[in-house]
Each structure stands twice: as C-alpha cells, then as structure tokens.
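Researcher: We plan to redesign the surface later, but first we want a full-length starting point. Tokens attached.
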C-alpha cells in the first residue's frame, strides 16, 4: 500500500516537474532559416489569402541538425498584438508559452528545400503576426527554432485581417434561415398529420 502511494506520488511529481521545467525558449538556438511570403506590413485576409513558408537548416551555423526529427511551423502573435491579452502571453517555458497558437504545418524534418503553402484559416483572429518553426528531437521536445522576424519580434511582421463583419452577418443570416426552414417543415408536417387524423375521425 505504502509502495503504491509512493509510486503514485512520484508519478504526479514527475508530471508536475515536467510541466514546470519544460524546455525554455531562451535555451534554444536559432539554427533554422525561415521565410514567409507576406512582405513587411502586408495585410492578408483570413479564409482567402495564402502564405508560402520555406525553411531550412542554416548551413553556416556551427552545429548539427542530426537530433532533429520533426518540424512544426507556427503562426505567432507579434508583441503589439499581445498587449493586455494574457491569453497570448510569451512565457520562456515553452509548455506555457502562448505566442504561437496556430499550426501551419507539421512534417518530418528535412534540412533543405522545404516549402508549404497555407490558406489562412477562417478563424485566425485579426492581429499582427510572424512565422516561427520549431525542430523537435525524438522525445518530442523542442531542439531549435527559426523565425521570420528578428530577436525582438519587431521586423518583418504582417497582419491578418479577419473575415469582415459583412461576411459574418451573412453567415449568421444563412444559419438562421436554414434553422427557420427546418422548423417550418416540421410545423407543416405536424399540421398535415393532425389534418389526416381529423379527417379519419370524421
Ligand atoms: C546562420 O548562422 C550564422 C552563424 O551562426 C549567422 O551568422 C547567420 O546570421 C545565420 N543566418 C541566418 C539567415 O539566420
Ligand atoms: C533543392 O531544390 C533544388 C531545385 O529544385 C535542387 O536543384 C536541389 O538539388 C535541391 N536540394 C536538395 C538538397 O534536395
């Protein structure tokens, strides 16, 4: 019994430590070269426009990529779109970091000739962004990164414009309309049924 408790306790502690002391961003080296198609300051539309991202290992970086197994490319909030929004906070512990919330693509790692074209998803909030990719090693922890902006995240940013109010209200109108048609069909059916019943009783 005591041994059992001890095991549960150590298991819990393990999970706890893992989430508290995950990989920190500041410990990662910037070994990936990442580019994205939007020009600095460009406004791209959610649900319509496409972004092409390329990434590769920096060949002049003094180091190796032999531990990298997978890569994830993410859309990340620029500091200007994080102000007063705790739910987008940058935290050095990557398990808690909320800078990069939208995955563009995840792939097995390859050192060069990587490119992916992504249609910006409809539900991407209106904000200023950059693109970052993380390389992961075999135990799925972050091993390195690369990004389209500088270390202070101030250069080469672009904006995503959300689906406009007009589109949204049109969407709402069409949802209401279809709900209404289902309802009227149902009412019609009930009325018809009652009519048949009444005529049968006569
Ligand atoms: C590649 O790595 C070298 C050496 O660390 C560095 O000087 C250079 O700026 C890097 N290039 C890019 C595009 O990040
Ligand atoms: C990358 O693509 C270019 C052009 O398609 C090709 O010439 C080159 O050999 C490729 N490099 C690798 C490492 O696959």
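Model: Full-length starting sequence:
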């Amino acid at each position: 019994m005591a041994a059992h408790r001890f095991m549960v306790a150590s298991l819990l502690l393990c999970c706890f430590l893992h989430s508290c002391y995950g990989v920190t961003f500041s410990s990662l080296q910037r070994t990936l070269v990442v580019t994205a198609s939007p020009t600095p300051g460009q406004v791209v539309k959610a649900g319509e426009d496409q972004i092409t991202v390329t990434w590769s290992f920096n060949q002049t970086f003094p180091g190796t990529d032999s531990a990298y197994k997978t890569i994830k490319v993410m859309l990340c909030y620029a500091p200007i779109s994080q102000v007063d929004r705790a739910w987008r906070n940058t935290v050095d512990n990557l398990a808690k970091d909320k800078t990069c919330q939208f995955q563009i693509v995840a792939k097995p790692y390859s050192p060069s000739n990587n490119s992916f074209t992504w249609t910006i998803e409809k539900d991407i909030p209106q904000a200023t962004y950059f693109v970052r990719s993380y390389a992961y090693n075999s135990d799925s922890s972050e091993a390195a990164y690369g990004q389209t902006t500088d270390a202070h995240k101030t250069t080469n940013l672009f904006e995503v414009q959300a689906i406009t109010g007009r589109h949204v209200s049109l969407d709402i109108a069409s949802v209401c309309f279809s709900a209404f048609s289902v309802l009227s069909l149902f009412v019609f059916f009930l009325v018809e049924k009652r009519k048949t019943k009444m005529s049968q009783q006569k």
